[in-house]
Amino acid sequence: FTVRSTSLQELLVNRMKAVRGRAEACALRQFTALSSFLDGVEYSWSCSYPKVTHGLGLWGLLELGLKTSKRQGEEVLSLYMCAQDSLSFQDQERGFAAEIGKHVVTQFSALNLHLTTKGHAFGAFVLRLLGMHRLKDIHNFNIDVSRSEVKEACPLNCPCDGPKGWKSQTISLNLRKVKIEGFKGENHELDFLKVVLRCSPTLKSVTVKLPDRDMPSDDWCTKIHNIFGEYPYVEGNIDLISG
């Protein structure tokens, strides 16, 4: 089914079998799905924003989704975020958390974060995100970093690598499994990796992935292996992706 409305505020779907639907309703405040087929199977939904009105720091929220598998006992939150031209959401942590809570009322244990960086550093932002109360129980964390074909660079004095001191901060993370796709081995990425390893006492494995066309140098590999070597209880992996 497809619903398009500029005034619809509540939508109730009651079906006895699987259904795929799309709702384009900018004023929608409540969506409820009632169906016996949801018991014991996997289902998912997502909400896309026609324009960026919510975010955190430099990063705007483009899409939010939830995927649930009752058989596996895991609920996965997906966030699609893109770097903006300015600190549009500098003091919006509470509003950003409220936006997530408005759509997601269940407890989730996994987070898939899709970032379009536009050349910006993301380490400080991701740690701030993981430190939010709403995300404290995340065990499985996947980051997919997207960069443009044309190399982009931060402007002078860009705030993306702030606040100062984030590389030495101590936060409590409950992460058990981390995957980073699109890893380039840049300094801020290595610093982020160090903080995650240092602040996650229950961490079991970390995997960094990059396309094989971006084959890392020996120096890059040495740095990664040295970082992993400081945490022998964590399984560290470097994967090359074809394409």
* Alpha plus pi helix count: 4
Name the structural class: alpha/beta
The low-confidence runs, each spanning 5 or more residues with pLDDT under 50, are none
Number of domains: 2
Compute the number of strand runs: 13
Radius of gyration over all CA atoms, rounded:
19 Å
Q: What general outline do the C-alpha atoms trace?
A: globular
What string gives the helices and strands in order?
EEEEEEEEHEHEEHEHE
Strand content: 25-35%
Sheet having the most strands = 9 strands, mixed
Helical fraction equals 10-25%
Tell me the distance between the termini.
36 Å
Overall mean pLDDT stands at 80
InterPro entries: FBD, FBL15-like
Protein name: FBD domain-containing protein
Pfam families: FBD (PF08387)
Domain FBD: 172-207
How would you describe this structure to a colleague?
This protein folds into two domains: 36 residues, no CATH class; 202 residues, no CATH class. Strand 8, helix 1 and strand 9 form a beta-alpha-beta unit. The strands form three sheets. Strands 5, 6, 7, 8, 9, 10, 11, 12 and 13 form a nine-stranded mixed beta sheet that branches. The radius of gyration is 19 Å and the shape is globular. It is an alpha/beta fold and 243 residues long. InterPro entries: FBD, FBL15-like. Pfam families: FBD. This is FBD domain-containing protein.
